[in-house]
């Protein structure tokens, strides 16, 4: 939205409210989709939203106008909701100067759709060079977005960001046996390097060539970076969220300063990483971004806060107030970094007498994640016997609790990498996880 | 904002209240569609209004209202699609031209869509008490009363309430002459009670919805009390031992099973370009016993997945996916139907104008048979009765779904309450392993379905009680 319109909304809101804030995002994305190895659809998506938050008679009112309409009704809708809203416990920040965070690459905007099509074709060709009968769905996406924020306390800021992403999902069907492989890479910067992504998928295909049997018992598990993301992260995201902590639902609520995780495990949230897709100079409430340690050598050090939750909890916002789809701000991660360790992936595998490597867990967020439980179907995973990967496992479920599993690890991998552009993690070698399978 | 777009928005708003069609809009669209040399073009416009109320414990955390408007153009040229979504309605001709240009980038070869007669129609729902017209104060009072009940129950530390209602008015037009105005309302409520004792946290929930009738979310006080009791009881419940069991699924969870395990596999966009999968999903192949019938039916009145035309303007109908154990049909868009030489079923749906329609379910359920619940329990030596749901997901062949409530079955009797369990299996063997289907069909209207980044789509699913042999349950 043009700044003059935001200022106009702010002006009319101030006639009704003690404080007001207008947050606008407009973005344009071009996803190019390949389906079953062929170019299927090219899209151009424009979207914009303007959110108004007000304090009226001490209560918070909130309304959004998405797309082309509703701006004229914003103030009325916000006033209506403020009658029932929660009490405002904070002030909008008056910040105007923010340190620069590099999140815009002008090359992204300039890249032609034709070039994106070529990149997708190259990627598919490389995977099919290894496995000719695989069917690949590939998405090559570029995008830009502009964020602006202005509030009645003098706070003001704006920034542009760019996005370039590549993702591949391959399916191989033999009779009723289906194998799913895939990976993705994304950054604020343009890159036409397809090799890293292709090599990881080819490795998955190699490892899954043979099938292996596993029985129902407790086994050591190596979670690959993808496995960490799909299997272990959901409970942690919830537990470090200041809201869960404030209401007392987080198992970590009284654990600040305590050793909860393995002493070699460190985790932080970092919104300042150059070209990270989760990075920003200020959060969606105008609070400066930072690098925030969550776990240092196994000790819980911080939780994630937005303005309102921080005020209620008697602490400061950590610059993690974010709005999904331009909506109500809530604490959320920017980018999570799990520190690397000293064991190579090869050495972890070599150390295992019998165990699993878990690459993809399906449905891990379905259990009691508030209590730390994880569990689900091993969509892609391999059996290890006597230090060798012997093949892919099927019909297998894992179940455990992150606070037990991450309390003491057999090892933390050396090789860290980005998963989905917002989590950087090494492989984690866990001691004993429950494995259940058919026929035992 | 230009004057022109303001005017057009006002015009878009007006249609829903008027008796006739929006002539001005029809002309604008007809003009924009002319002379692009595409094989097919369609245009969507949409306007929606939503109210959302979220509680976290005793705090009303968020109460917000939103308006959303925009549209999209989709063009087909030589088998490839271009898609442009937009916020402003001005310059429509240029947007059509961009979508056509995008489609030309690929050009895979000729593609005919499933042939349809053009439709001109207008669909406006008749609601007794439309949730979108109920005052905020009434909504809040009702939700407060549920929250008070949950929070005042023993061992309950916190709660969650997510309430959302939304009205959506849309216009669909295509280059074949179809012009459809539709209005739809959707209502969704989830109540969750969170119990805590020492370091143990457990939760229990209730999820339901309607096509906008507010009465669907009224009078749930006893249920609110019940989920609070259950969450507290879970604190001292044991964890099931992981392994293979005979399980009985209640109608809610069996409905999720029908949706996750088989429904997604019936979505033809997974199948139509995959020859191997086509061989697996050959019509006429046996998938289960004679007692097994699975259908998808958007024509049933007043279910969340009900609608008259899908987002390609195709009139809907009842589709038997499995009839008497045999694969009989699948869900189609116009493209997948044409490619597979089958009939379009009216299952191409989009969550909003930012997305192109893809093949989705509507109301998916297992039809009732004759078994009684007691009869199913009767000969189970050791098994698990699973009820209610946290969620479910599928990778076509493999599914997992999680039960919010579970009990051991010992010697034909329901025994102790268990911690929530996750079930998994291979859909093909699991369907064969259904050995009893009950006579007590129940529909579940909670939650929403996600696919291809489009979430949540209003759907419903259902089933009677069913019994499955050899089902894997995860546990510690």
What is the domain tally of chain A?
2
Q: What fraction of the residues of chain B are assigned to beta strands by DSSP?
A: 35-45%
Classify the beta-strand content of chain A into a percent band.
Answer: 35-45%
Greatest interface by residues involved: A-B, 80 and 86 residues
| Oligomeric assembly | heterodimer
In total, the number of domains of chain B comes to: 2
Low-confidence stretches of chain B: 1-19
- Stretches with pLDDT under 50, minimum 5 residues of chain A: none
Shape, principal axes of CA atoms of chain A: globular
**What is the typical, i.e. mean, pLDDT of chain A?**
94
Structural class of chain A: alpha+beta
For the sheet with most strands of chain A, the description reads: 6 strands, antiparallel
- Fraction of residues of chain A in helices? 10-25%
Name of the CATH architecture of the largest domain in chain B: 2-Layer Sandwich
- Total strands of chain B: the figure is 26
Tell me the CATH topology of the largest domain in chain B: PmbA/TldD fold
What's the count of strands of chain A? Answer: 21
- Please work out how many helical segments of chain A DSSP would assign: 10
